[in-house]
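Reply to dn_fold:

You asked what the input looked like. This is it:
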Amino acid sequence: MSEEIHPPSQARDPSLVYRILALDTLEHIDLLRISAQAAGHEVVAVTRIAEAMHFLNTKDHVDVVVSAVHLEQESVFDFLKEMKKSPLHKDVPFMMLCSEPGEFAMAVNRSVQSAATVMGVDKYLTMPEYDVHRLMKEIVAMIPDRPPSKEQDGSE
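and this is what came back:
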């Protein structure tokens, strides 16, 4: 049984709104977007690696990247490699998501997970059935706590 995700009880400080870059099917991204918005976060939806890299290289930031393992005509490993070699993005937590895997995907899942780990993925998640509530819980666990602002910690 999944826990319900409730919206914040009051408006969230913009510094506490997390931005999640999601590279997956439009159907899965829409479900993630709804849950993320309910929790007070933002989802940047992309369906191609080039779109993801363009966003990352031209916008201010993302707090976590979630990418499907099996992309249509693209390699998630190419995306992970680009992220990890970039000084700007190498520390952004990166999750690979194997959701609703077919027979072949399950047969190679352990090898794919091992390769992802060697390449620096922060989390590899297999979900036989897409569960957006579980996914949100895993994403939130990956997002680092924000450091206190200079006003809060007294430094200048």
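The chain has one domain: 24-144.
Hope that clears it up.
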